[in-house]
Amino acid sequence: MSSNDSLKSRSLSYHEEPVPGKISVISSKPCETQQDLSLAYTPGVAEPCLAIKDDPASVYRYTSKGNTVAVVSDGTAVLGLGNIGPAAGLPVMEGKAVLFKRFADIDAIPICLSKVFTADGHTDADKLIAVAETLEPTFGGINLEDIAAPACFKVETVLKERMGIPVFHDDQHGTAIISLAALLNAVPLTDRSLDTLQVVVNGAGAAGIACAEFYILAGVRRENVVICDSHGVVYQGREKGMNPAKERLATSKPCRTLAEALVGADMFLGCSVGRCVTQDMVRSMAAKPIVLAMANPVPEIFPEDALAAGAYVVGTGRTDFPNQVNNVLGFPGIFRGALDVRARDITEEMKLAASRALAEVARATIPAEVKAQLAKAYPADAAAGVFDGECPVKPSYVIPKPFDPRVVPHVARRVAEAAVAQGNADAPIADFDAYEAALVKRLAHG
After folding, report:
1. Is 41 noted as a catalytic residue in this protein?
2. Domains contained in the chain, CATH given
3. 8, 14, 22, 41: which is the annotated catalytic residue?
4. Whole-angstrom Cα distance, residue 349 to residue 333?
5. For the whole model, what pTM was predicted?
6. How high is the pLDDT of residue 387?
């Protein structure tokens, strides 16, 4: 049996046995006696219902809304699989729910929507918005997932305007937040600064466009960004395959192909397809370039090839290579912090705070007990000295690892701080040191 056949067999068995799927509902209250039943349902349940009717904010006291997130998708842009539809996308959304629970103790419910499509099978943004906005009474936040561009931009924008709970499209902002965290540590390692960084992005879908715009928000100059799609460089005056999001990033530079764009560039960011970058392209970049090749499962260029061609910092979207740009570093902590202060939105300042928090974790000295946990989860990295040093940051370690127990508490803390500072929190926290320490204890595993 080949390795692919073995993975397929193990994965199907994992999802089927001992019961189908990866999630279930477990009651948080006892229901074993006549009294329990009278409190859980009729007649006792009338009391919290009436309390919420009189004081709508008390829904957070008497229901699970404040710790529940809806993972909403129409299955039109499932990572690595494309437009496979809502039913086929359900295992991915269940997986997202597993990660919410495992890393942040957030209860997440997958909601895969049908009948929200145009006649040609693409997302009808207005239909999806109309359904998703009705979920606000039940959920504390909305995680949009695997919704194709350009409809995803309108869906998120309109829902953020209409809803009073956090709405976050992880395919856009998760990748942007994590990769910016890597960039914040990689830039000083290569003796650069954000305001002079020459960036080339390949892939002008939701993730690529969001990353480019987020880097600009963080300090990269718009005129220093070149983005490419399947038609080549997105340039001013181009007509083929354009949309408003691409227009905002269209360059005035004369380059027209990815290879031309990479000449002299400081950074390559890939949100596209495997093996589209060659060693010669990397050699044409500026000295000590940063290469984040995030296509999955085959990156735009494999790390060993990029390093051999002169790349200094290399990251991918895979777990088996250094510097994995993994969204699980972001969304659990972001939603944990947003839910805990009852934020009404996830703002740009909160996203920047999440990136900075991740960069801070990577730079901080790793305590002995944390290092022991990391050594168990990542034995090869530990043996190679990746986690050593007063400031562990190095070319092979510019972002922390997903199983680092410091990640979610610190991201949640910084996100919550930003929300409170903006006046975007209905339940402000007074002592953030105590909050972070309590989260460390709450989220400890084993």
Report:
1. yes
2. 38-165 (3.40.50.10380), 173-316 (3.40.50.720), 330-442 (3.40.50.720)
3. 41
4. 15
5. 0.97
6. 98
